[in-house]
Request: fold
Amino acid sequence: MLPNSVRTPRSDDQLRDKMTATRRRVLAADDHSRILSAVNALLKGSFDVIGLYPDGRAALEATLKLQPDLLVLDVSMPGMSGIEVASELKRRGNHTPIVFLTVHEDARVLAGCLAAGGLGYVVKELMDTDLIPAVNEALAGRVYVSRWS
Reply:
């Protein structure tokens, strides 16, 4: 019989599997690599970041394939915006919660994001303080909007 403080390799594997199973899977898209790196750094301690994508089309395809628990999408990306991705997912019956990232402090853009199915609206300048709360609120089915001037 092993003392309680000694872990066998099998029990370590089981503990790691259990911890991984409870972490929510997040996918993010932004056309700026610096922002994607910041999102990854902010989220990786609490969530499994399963993909970082530089455009909306890649994020759409990955979402349909990987079925993440949540999406973090830049509002303005060339080719296919975050709002277009959210609208297409909604059209296809996919209800993955979405948190939008934006530089726009604009009520009309916010309204468009909410209409597309977004639950979070985080101003990039406030990501350090607002991204984690927005993700948690979206996962709980509640809306989170960054405050701006």
User: Anything to note?
Assistant: The radius of gyration is 17 Å. Residues 24-145 form a domain with the Rossmann fold fold (CATH 3.40.50.2300).
